[in-house]
Specification:
By secondary structure, this protein is of the alpha/beta class. It is globular, with a radius of gyration of 18 Å.
């Protein structure tokens, strides 16, 4: 039986061609056999794209903006992470989901090829939140510094090279975003942008509510916007992951909720790194008509 010491800082393990966090990859058959329910709601993102943020927004929308109801438990219990599995700490998304009352909100970073087939068969509603790749790379780098389940990231230069090559947990950002974008053509999937949610939260939350069959008045929308603002969430122990074991998430190395801004990449990328990134981005993203924004100008 594996212990936590056996999984800390281990190299990624390949699962059907995708690099996966070692602890999550153990006993992968459980994942493939997972049975969804038709009323499950899936929140999918590439890591560090606003997953916790969109999870709390969705929970608030489903609870009609009732702040007290949304304080019923920590975010990792309200919205279990499907593939999460930490031997020795008795943390398992699949086990959590067995006792989660319907309708379940399930979060995942899995590429579409690794998501259990039953989600597609049951036509479960899905929300995908995409964030611009440059800010994702910076945020992912800091997350790897504080997350013992991930391999050590090395220097920023080394990490950026791995990120661009897709040698990070869950593989290539480019492939992830493109495949989920394509999936919305044939599946009930709402595709949203992190930057739009930052710039115009009311309109984006209205889209989420409509997708979930909810109609919310302006007062409720404003309450959700306030409660899920970065400043409120960063200081909220129910959602900022300070409840997780420090052996796993070391907030002294980097807070789980670091900045939550658009354009922080400019503080890390050198001119040469930016040029290299742009060249690879142009090649990888030549097909789909994305509208990623890498900077939000202040009014």
């Amino acid at each position: 039986m594996a212990t936590t010491e056996d999984v800390w800082r281990k190299d990624l393990k390949m699962i059907h061609g995708y690099p996966m966090i070692y602890a999550f990859a153990l006993d992968w058959e459980r994942m493939e056999e997972f049975q969804s329910r038709p009323d499950d709601l899936v929140i999918s993102t590439y890591p560090k794209s606003g997953t916790t943020w969109i999870s709390e927004i969705v929970d608030m929308v489903l609870n009609d903006g009732n702040v007290e109801k949304c304080k019923r438990d920590v975010i990792t219990s309200k919205v279990p992470m499907l593939e999460m599995s930490v031997p020795g700490l008795n943390i398992s998304g699949i086990e959590q989901l067995k006792t989660t009352p319907p309708p379940r909100i399930i979060k995942t970073h899995l590429p579409i090829d690794l998501l259990p087939k039953s989600f597609w068969e049951n036509k479960c509603k899905m929300i995908y939140l995409a964030r611009n790749a440059k800010d994702v790379a910076v945020s992912f780098y800091h997350f790897d510094l504080m997350n013992s389940l991930h391999p050590l990231p090395g220097t920023w230069e080394e990490y950026l090279h791995k990120f661009l090559a897709g040698n990070v947990p869950y593989g290539s950002w480019f492939s992830h975003v493109k495949s989920w974008w394509e999936k919305k053509k044939e599946h009930p999937l709402l595709f949203l942008y992190y930057e739009d949610l930052k710039q115009n939260p009311k309109e984006e939350i209205k889209k989420i509510a409509s997708f979930l069959g909810k109609t919310l008045d302006n007062e409720t929308l404003d309450r959700i916007i306030h409660h899920t603002s970065f400043e409120m969430m960063k200081d909220n122990p129910m959602v900022n992951c300070t409840h997780m074991p420090s052996s796993m998430l070391d907030h002294s190395k980097s807070p789980f909720m670091r900045k939550g801004v658009v354009g922080d990449w400019k503080n890390y990328f050198t001119v040469a790194q930016n040029e290299k990134f742009d060249a690879i981005y142009k090649k990888e993203m030549s097909g789909p008509t994305f509208k990623f924004c890498t900077d939000i100008q202040s009014a």
